[in-house]
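Bumping my old thread because nobody answered last time. Still need a sequence for this structure:
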């Protein structure tokens, strides 16, 4: 469980730090809607990521039917959470829809980037 929390902390910290710096930079150069959308999407992406990690242990040791029902409910609830910033970005002019979507997937981008860089560095090590 501690490894899960460390993983959540590592990727969430990277994502929110990047979103805040990029968001403030975008706001400073006059792209308020883009910056605010990026930060909004990232916050909700982090909430989704943490909820996903917190519900994983709850699925273990249960019957197949209960696990299926719990998993379906968890996914449905997380979809509702992800819909909130998307609806806000669609309805309100102060948030950019595309930057909000980018913010939602920022954690997944960091996870993927870490694995790609790890593969590249291990491939370089084998060439030497």
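Sorry it took so long. Here it is:
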């Amino acid at each position: 469980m501690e490894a899960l929390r460390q993983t959540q902390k590592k990727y969430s910290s990277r994502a929110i730090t990047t979103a805040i710096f990029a968001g403030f930079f975008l706001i400073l150069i006059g792209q308020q809607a883009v910056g605010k959308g990026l930060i909004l999407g990232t916050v909700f992406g982090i909430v989704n990521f943490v909820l996903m990690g917190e519900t994983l242990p709850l699925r273990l040791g249960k019957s197949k039917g209960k696990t299926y029902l719990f998993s379906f409910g968890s996914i449905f609830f997380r979809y509702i959470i992800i819909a909130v910033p998307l609806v806000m970005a669609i309805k309100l002019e102060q948030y950019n829809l595309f930057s909000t979507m980018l913010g939602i997937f920022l954690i997944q981008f960091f996870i993927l980037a870490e694995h790609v860089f790890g593969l590249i560095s291990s491939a370089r090590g084998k060439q030497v």
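The two ends are 38 Å apart (CA to CA). Let me know if any region looks off to you.
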